Amino acid sequence: MYTILLTDDEQIMIDSLTMTLTKNFASEVKLFSALSGSEALEIVAKNQIDIIFMDINMPGLNGLQTVSYIKQSKPDTVVIILSAFDEFEYAKEAVNIGAFKYLTKPVNRNTVIDTVKSAFDEIDKRRGRVFSEVELHKKLEIVSPMVESDFIYSAAFGGKDIREYFSYFEIEHCVYCFCCIEIAHLDDKNKYEVYNEIREILCAKTRCIIGSFMANRLAVFFYFPDSASRENDEKELKERIKEIFSLLSMRISKYIRFGVSPFETAIEKTTVSYNKALEALISIKDDEEGLKIAFCEKVSLEESESEEKMAEKIYGRVMVGDSSALPPLVSAYIKKLYSLYDGKEDKIKNALFSLLVNVKNVATKIAVSYKNALFENAFSFFCNEHSKDALEEFVLTLCSDSANAVKETLSKSENPIITMALKYINSHLSTSFSLEEVSRFSGVSPFYLSKLFKEEKKENFTAFVTNLRLEKAKTLLQSTRSSIKEVSAEVGYNDQNYFSRIFRYQYGMTPTEFRDAKK
Q: What burial class does residue 413 get, using C-beta atoms within 10 Å of its C-beta: 0-12 exposed, 13-18 middle, 19+ buried?
């Protein structure tokens, strides 16, 4: 089976090639199509494409530029250039970027068939080769950041089994911790450069997996092989994280902060670990220098810990939706109250009632519509109940329910990277922009942003933007007296004819026909 991508801004050309290939190679090929260079990049990033038919003259990213990008990560892809211009310079450039064939339009059906057969032979030869270490390294340089960002998002927020990622990164029996890095006053314009510099420093110093920017924060997964000398290893990694913090403070920004989780070995606790790193980061107080690093220690059940500090830990777990960490915290807190107040029920119950009031306030700040009738009956319950175990069960039930409500709300929230991308798209809808520009603004790679759009919006980036532009065009056609040319420019299309073609393809009528029908 061979996979073929047909790229042309004219749907009729794609349809013609599809008909020819389906008729002559139906059982041998799987076909994809793209109407622009950016869309072609998205498809290549997510699928193993063997052969690409690429039109040269397309709006935005032209065919030769697109092929150049593809060849950087997929050097063995067989590219067949299509052009309406039989010019030597075009053909020369096509050869320079590694094109297999250069065909001029209109293309004869038999020429297409013969070219595809030759391409099949070439692919069979290339499939027999083994990638050299240099070629593999080039590919990983592009793919790894995308996979790392996907791992971090899954490990931090759950929803996917991350064991396959551990296999990909060749991690076995590791000790790990999460680190949340926050950079104040981060400029969106240089976020991509900052990310690359941070990545360079981290990768040079230790084993780690690095996520993409979420607002002005990065999540990093530090790990090392589990060994008999774990205590020494943990101490060494802690010192290395401090060293990295100092380097980033000097090279990136003095307003940089680290929140580091306790060390952990259980794979299923990555979300808890991330939340603890975030909690440590949030706990850092503002000061004049702005240089801070906080290591979150494991839950302490010691009698010496203050009542207020123990209550703050409970609020912190509720705030990040971590109900699994609450049982030991609540139990230790109640034990502390009984010891502190020498079993005096009134004072113990007052403290517990105050705790629940604060828990409810913390939860409803995030889960605004959250309600639980037990909160309304809490005062009555405390008046009538005298069993320590019953009090603990009641408090734990409400705290856990509050944390679960917060977790559910957070899980439904839109991915912050998509939120950033939509902010850019909506403010630039009247101009021409590319996936690459939006990804730079969002602080992630084009491939990763494309993947997120497919997952979150259920359609690719190009289709999503096109639909937004055309919906806005429909509104303008109905609500204004602007000319078709003015409407076209307002939604980011400088070529009125191109705008009319895609509008008709989408809605079955031209912009003029649509306006007349609405009248």
A: exposed
Among 26-35, 373-382, 432-441, 443-452, name the one with the lowest average pLDDT: 443-452
Cβ 152 vs Cβ 141: under 8 Å: no
The pLDDT tens digits of the residues spanning 161-194 come to 788 788 778 887 888 999 999 887 777 667 778 8
State phi, psi for 225 to the nearest 5 degrees. Answer: -60, 135
Token pair belonging to 123: 């692919």
Reduced to 3 states, what is the DSSP secondary structure of residue 29?
A: strand
- Burial class, 319, CB count within 10 angstroms (exposed 0-12 / middle 13-18 / buried 19+): buried
Q: Tokens at residue 96, please?
A: 């320079």
Q: Is the dihedral of CA 163, 166, 170, 171 positive or negative?
A: negative
pTM score, two decimals? 0.39
Q: What is the CA radius of gyration of the chain?
A: 29
Of 29-33, 427-431, 459-463, least confident by mean pLDDT is 459-463
Quick one: average pLDDT of 45-51?
A: 88
Rounded-to-integer distance, Cα 297 and Cα 277, Å: 10
Give 181: exposed, middle or buried? Use CB within 10 Å, 0-12, 13-18, 19+: buried
Looking at residue 284, the DSSP 8-state letter turns out to be P
Strands of the sheet with 78-83, listed across from one edge = 29-34, 2-7, 51-55, 78-83, 101-104
End-to-end CA distance of the chain: 52
Residue 177: predicted pLDDT: 92
Closest by alpha carbon to 418, among 446, 457, 445, 447? 457
How far is 100 from 85, CA to CA, in rounded Å? 17
56 pLDDT exceeds 60? Answer: yes
Cα dihedral 99/100/104/108 (nearest 10): -160
Burial of 369 (0-12, 13-18, 19+ CB in 10 A): exposed
| Residue length of the chain | 519
* Rounded-to-integer distance, Cα 79 and Cα 101, Å: 7
| Among 276, 318, 315, 325, CA closest to 409 | 318
* Cα–Cα distance for residue pair 258/276, rounded to 1 Å: 12
- Calculate helix-pair angle for 230-251, 191-205, nearest 10 degrees: 150
